[in-house]
Amino acid sequence: MIEGQDTAFLLSDKSLDKELKTIAEKVHSGERISFDEGVTLFEKAELGYLGILANSVRYRRHGTKTYFNRNFHIEPTNLCVYDCKFCSYSRLIKEREEGWELSLQQMLDIVKSYDDQPVTEVHIVGGVLPQYDLSFYTELFAKIKQHRPELHVKALTPVEYHYIFKKAKVDYQAGMRLMKEAGLESMPGGGAEIFHPDVRNKISKDKCNADQWLEIHEIWHNLGMRSNATMLYGHIEEFWHRVDHMERLRQLQDQTKGFQAFIPLKFLNKDNQMSNVPEVSVIEDLRNDAIARIYMDNFDHIKAYWAMISRSTAQLSLNFGVDDIDGTLNDTTKIYSMAGAEEQNPAMSTQDLVKLIKKVGMHPIERDTLYNVLMDYENFDFSKSNASEYNELPLIK
Fold first, then answer.
1. How confident is the model at residue 174, as a pLDDT?
2. In this predicted structure, what is the pLDDT of residue 118?
3. For residue 317, what are the CA distances in angstroms to 113, 284, 305, 306?
4. Distance, CA of 390 to CA of 375 (rounded, Å)
5. Of 74, 190, 193, 377, which one has the greatest count of Cβ atoms within 10 A?
6. Which residues pair with 153 in a beta bridge?
7. Which residue ranges in the chain fall short of pLDDT 50?
């Protein structure tokens, strides 16, 4: 695909399936496609067709701009009261010897270790344990903001908040207000998995359900705040389950307009209870990205994690609707490697990431958490800059 390529020639293709032609006409005119048409895309559409449609949406919104940010992860624990079948990361409490549990001071020490680096966000997410309760996290968020007020705190998913609030005997509304007052500024998109109970009850039945996940995000949005959303695909779900998942997100976004990015997460089968389920192909990854861009017409951004799907697939995804490929990192998160990602020790400097984006003809933009532009790298000359500033920062999103 090339910049400016649109769907016009698809509309003149007399051999194109009638349903697919109708969908192409809708996308070409900026009209929303229906649930059934979303399923049709999964069942009938070839990769090239999907790439053309998704790319037309991407260029309409962002041109060739491709976003990343600089941040770092804190993972409080990988021990968890829940037993999600797809998870390679967490360990049950009885497996404590295989895990870690950070204290509040240890987490603050991690924050302080980045004091001399121009990071803009701390991303906090991990397992669920009783000691990581309401008072723990409100104190943590407040102390982070006291120490470094400009650092954006993006933390915890509805899975964690549901447990925390239930244990504290506060409702979601009161709980999210307390988190905001403590210093929480946005929420990541994790814990969504697949919303439909036919699938959710088989892979993650113990934790919050779809309605609860969506309600917590809705409350957060109504407080004037932003969040992301994910979908775990490529395991036991059917295509229509994926569309059902995206439809529920699309409906909530129509109401609140609080979601920033939709992030398809590929199921990886290493060292989990679903290791017998084969992983889907790269072609299916790209098809899923493209359909997400077409279907999620009220989401500004579609993001792919390069450390999870590989650098080469991430580059390909930029021509299939994706406009954000995460950030630079040095494997301070174990989520990717423990799940069997292609890169077991992922690391990429800002300069490496900019080169990766430029190599496929895209325009690298460093952003903050809320997608404000911090640096435009289109004509940036690394040879005339302080190399250490761009080559040594361990940054993850």
1. 98
2. 85
3. 34, 11, 10, 10
4. 12
5. 193
6. 122
7. 1-4, 330-331, 336-342, 344, 391-397
- State the alpha helices, DSSP H only, in the chain: 8-11, 18-29, 35-44, 47-62, 104-112, 134-147, 158-168, 172-182, 197-203, 210-222, 239-256, 282-295, 306-309, 311-317, 335-338, 350-359, 387-391
Give the separation between CA 113 and CA 72, rounded to whole angstroms: 11
How many C-beta atoms lie closer than 10 Å to residue 37's C-beta? Answer: 18
Task: Please list, in sequence order, all residues whose beta carbon lies within 8 angstroms of the beta carbon of residue 166, skipping any fewer than 6 positions away.
Answer: none
Rounded to whole angstroms, how far apart are CA atoms 49 and 60?
17
Residue 223 to residue 186: CA distance in whole angstroms: 11
* Token pair listed for 106: 């240890």
Q: Measure the CA–CA gap between 154 and 179, rounded to whole angstroms.
A: 11
The confidence score (pLDDT) of residue 389 equals 56
Separation CA 112–CA 122 (nearest Å): 11
- Is residue 371 within 8 Å of 300, Cβ to Cβ? yes
Do residues 222 and 244 make contact, with C-beta atoms less than 8 angstroms apart?
A: no
Name the strands in the sheet holding 152-155, side by side, starting at the edge strand that comes first in the sequence.
Answer: 71-74, 121-124, 152-155, 186-187, 226-233, 259-266, 301-302
Give the CA distances from residue 241 to residues 232, 244, 248, 254, in Å, rounded to whole numbers and listed in that order.
Answer: 11, 5, 11, 20
Assign 241 to helix, strand or coil: helix
